[in-house]
Amino acid sequence: MNPLVLPKAPASRLPAKTRTVLAVIVLLGLTLAFYYGLWLPGLVLIKRDAYGLWLPLKQHMTERLTAGELPQWFPYEALGRPFIGTAATGIFHPFTVLYFLLPAPDAYRASTLLSCLLAAVGAFTLGRTLNFSRAGAVVAGAAFALSGYVVSFTEHLIYLYSICVLPLFCAALEKALVGIRAWTVAPALVWATVLLHGDGQTGYYFGFIALIWTAARAPGVQREACLRLLLVVSLAALLASVQLAPAAVVFLSSDRMQPELFQGEALYWSTHPLRLLTVLAAPVGENANPVEVGRIFFGTPQRGSTGGMLADSLYLGVPMVGLALLGGWHRRDLRVLALLGGFALLLALGQFGGLYTVFYNVVPLWSAFRYPEKWMGVVSFAAAILAGAGIDALRAGKGSPTPWLAMAILCAGIWLGLRTEAASAWTAIHFGASESLAGEMTGSAALAFLYSAGASLGVWMVILGARNGRLREAVLFSALVAILTLDLWRANFSAYRTGPVEAATFIPPLAQAIAAREGGLTPGRFRLIPIRESKHMVRKSLQRLLGQEAESVVRRQALDVEHNAQFHLETTHVSLPGYNRALLTLLPEKPRIEVAARFNVTYFTGPRSYLRDLRYTSALVVGLSDYDLALYQNPAPAKPRAYLSLKPERVGSPVDPAALAARSDFLNGEVDVIETSAATLPGPARAGKAVIERYAPEEVRVWVETPQPAVLILLDAFDQGWTAVLETGARLPIRRANALVRAVVVPAGVHAVTFRYETPLLRVGAAASLAGMLLCLGMIVHASWRRRPHCSAP
Questions:
Q1: pLDDT digit string, tens, across residues 572-597
Q2: 701 beta partners
Q3: Whether residue 540 has pLDDT greater than 80
Q4: pLDDT tens-digit readout, 628-653
Q5: What is the pLDDT of residue 2?
Q6: What is the DSSP string of 560-605?
Q7: Buried b / exposed e across 668-678, counting CB within 10 Å, b at 16+?
Q8: Rounded to whole angstroms, how far apart are CA atoms 248 and 241?
Q9: Average pLDDT over residues 511-525
Q10: Is the pLDDT of residue 776 over 90?
Q11: What is the pLDDT of residues 694-732, one digit of tens each?
Q12: Beta partners for 623?
């Protein structure tokens, strides 16, 4: 017997389709077992933004949709923001259907679980499309679905979904390049769902991936391949226009169009070269403060105070990386994956790799996006698919077991070296870390390399046994899948976290206190500013229950979740992209109380230990001693949401927010600076009044009584899409006031001024999406008709 050929298992009598179904069931079983926290009842994703940002957004969306309203304006952040125009809300994505069927926390978990299942099935499908064996396709699916990047992004559903469907996109693109033209609908549909879900950055990157894939994989005439790629791009853009068109309006008027302001923030999220070691050995520093670890070991010079670690884990493991190298070496036709993985790795390094900086300055629109580390998802994708090819190479008797033994010895040597006191001392001196932190890092890294040594040794033993004829092919496959899965499970399982659903449903005592004082909570009356702290006081019982994620629950207690829409509390903080930078100048996270009062801020929350100023303590409303939190009324009298300006001041150019905040007549509530091209403005409104009669997110009606023409100020964000009309139907031009808010000139008399909002280009985008759907349907019907056998003439 040839020693390079593995002994074959007896041929299966099961039909090919049955074996494929069984392979998919095994793959889905592995994925469901790993992500059991996403389908067990009574749980909620508790990790950072999954809990404090995306879930509240979805709860708001569900509340509005179930009431029969389309949420176009979001009043609970930054004086008000476009909801549909801020693409991250993802209202038009198919997953929105789940929120009509399940409670919001369960629908959110189901969306996350479906994304992970799509990752597994998509990688399996791509493997079969690339002629992998079922065993190789199962390994590709399991390796991708359980990779560190994918598991980490259960925190960010929009980013998770976009990387999870990448294998499906490539499989569909492969079919579109070799099949009939109607196949171009498939990759266009997948691409459109990424854009509809709100991840414009990865959606943009899909174009470069499609270009590389087409150049490397397209058979025949390149002209035809380019035509098909252009058709895919056009169909995807049309299908997603209902989201792309409104998002473009917000995007073009935001800070994203100023690359010189945005570059530091973008490059901050570069993958530090030292983190690449955690691709092969992890977890490292799991018991240390992640902010401290990031700042000292993986920090970036642009921001300095904290490290730019977007994904908690980048772990792929020695078994997966080794199989990927083997697959890339022996499957020459898959070199596009190796090229794509290497290209993505350079981009993920951001400022450390150089290529991202070049692209930032050269490639159109590249500078509008941040998070270079998102390219590590493409690295994980390429490695997972090539690992499936590596399994097939082993089954064909290719590859020597020796490198696995060498890697095991190397990892064991690193383990021994890191366990010494000298290694800990060197780490403390070289990185400027404390002795305890240095000890935690070297100790956890040593253990991680020990596990990697064990995994490498296990693969070596399995391959050696197969080469010696002691293991059959089925046993080889089962053993390798077990090693790879257990290795990924061990390192990545803690990267997604769930807690009891009550953590996302309780009403904080401070919110109850405000509701009691105000007679209920509805938008349009007052605003709140949570004074943010990097670390809150956490009760030990909560710490034991939730670990590091207990901090998220305390932030909810402090009314410092990213959005308090669930409680109908308006804050001035900014989380969603596309905001006006003047807001951060006038209303930073810890603003002056006089400036805050000018924008209707009535309450502050924060730790008692921080708010020691007598102006705060004299205005204490209620305390929450268990968490060292308190609620304070703004010591400065807050301006009402709508009022007639005491002293309107005309300017012909945009207002400098810093200069405005320094003016005493602005701080005392007297002057309002109006940006207008009109020659004059009405004089001071010394008499008259303005009262809000109706306040809804997309419609605000103000009753105004004034003996002379006056300037009406509404302390809501100035934004495109708003119109103002009198009760007669006459339109009033809306001007920007005080750098942020709206102003209209009202004639003398008694009037009802109605502000209405309609998302810009929403109707145009919806019409384009409908045209794209009809075009796709027409292509599918035409292709189906052409494939039907035509009856011969009698």
A1: 988 887 777 788 889 988 888 999 99
A2: 694, 754
A3: no
A4: 888 999 989 999 999 999 999 999 88
A5: 41
A6: -SS--GGGT-EE----SSS--HHHHHHS-SS--HHHHHHTTEEEEE
A7: ebebbbbbbee
A8: 10
A9: 92
A10: yes
A11: 999 999 999 999 999 999 999 999 999 999 999 999 999
A12: 630
| DSSP-derived secondary structure for 720-758 | TTEEEE-TTS-EE--EEETTTEEEEEE-SEEEEEEEEE-
User: Closest by alpha carbon to 719, among 81, 156, 248?
Assistant: 81
Predicted local confidence at residue 307, as pLDDT: 43
d(CA 458, CA 452): 10
Q: How do beta strands 570-571 and 527-530 pair?
A: parallel
pLDDT at position 3? 43
Q: Out of 265-279, 527-541, 563-577, 590-604, give the one with best mean pLDDT.
A: 590-604
Beta-sheet pairing, 741-746 with 689-696: unpaired
| Neighbour count for residue 485 (Cβ, 10 Å) | 20
Q: Are 356 and 374 in contact (CB under 8 A)?
A: no
Question: Residue-wise over 599-615: b if at least 16 C-beta within 10 A, else e?
Answer: bbbbbbbbbbeebeeee
pLDDT tens across 341-390, in order? Answer: 999 999 999 888 889 889 988 898 888 888 899 999 999 999 999 999 99
Cα separation of 112 and 90, whole Å? 14
Rounded to the nearest 10°, the torsion over CA 340, 344, 347, 353 is -90
Higher-pLDDT residue of 617 and 391 is 391
Write the CA distances from 76 to 235, 552, 561, 633, integer angstroms: 35, 19, 11, 19
Using DSSP, state whether 671 is helix, strand or coil: strand
User: Which of these, 531, 553, 556, lies nearest to 606 by C-alpha position?
Assistant: 531
- Per DSSP bridges, beta strands 710-717 and 642-644 are antiparallel
Q: Long-range contacts for 618-623 (Cβ within 8 Å, ≥24 apart)?
A: 621/513, 621/514, 621/517, 622/509, 622/510, 622/513
415 or 788: which carries more pLDDT confidence?
A: 415
- The model's confidence at residue 1, banded by pLDDT at 50, 70 and 90, is very low
Q: Tell me the H-state helices in 130-165.
A: 134-145, 148-152, 157-164
* Cα–Cα distance for residue pair 64/57, rounded to 1 Å: 11
Beta-strand relationship, 699-706 and 570-571? unpaired
List, as one string, the DSSP characters of 404-425. Answer: HHHHHHHHHHHHHHHTSHHHHH
CA separation, residue 513 to residues 76, 508, 519, 607, 633 (Å): 19, 9, 10, 16, 12
Question: Quick one: pLDDT at residue 623?
Answer: 86
Q: How far apart are CA 491 and CA 312, in angstroms?
A: 11
CA angle 9-14-17, nearest 5°? 115
How far, in Å, are 328, 525, 585, 672, 749 from residue 588 at the CA level? 50, 21, 6, 20, 39
**Is a pLDDT exceeding 80 seen at residue 155?**
yes
Contact 392, 327 (CB under 8 A): yes
Cβ-contact 568, 523 below 8 angstroms: yes
CA 438 to chain centre: 31
Cβ-contact 110, 117 below 8 angstroms: no
Beta strands 647-651; 671-675: pairing state:
parallel
Which phi and psi (to 5°) does residue 259 adopt? -55, -35
* Residue found by looking up tokens 């998002």 in the block: 247
| Alpha carbons 115 and 688: distance in angstroms, whole number | 57
Coil, strand, or helix at residue 706? strand
Phi, psi of 184 (to 5 degrees): -65, -20
Q: Given this model, what pLDDT does residue 367 score?
A: 83
Do the strands 749-757 and 699-706 form a parallel or antiparallel pair, or are they unpaired?
A: antiparallel
Residue with tokens 């829409």: 565
Per-residue tokens: 7: 């002994």
CB–CB of 317/280 below 8 Å? yes
Beta bridge partner(s), residue 462: none
Structure tokens at 108: 């959110």
* Residue linked to tokens 């105004």: 704
517: enclosing H helix or E strand: helix 509-518
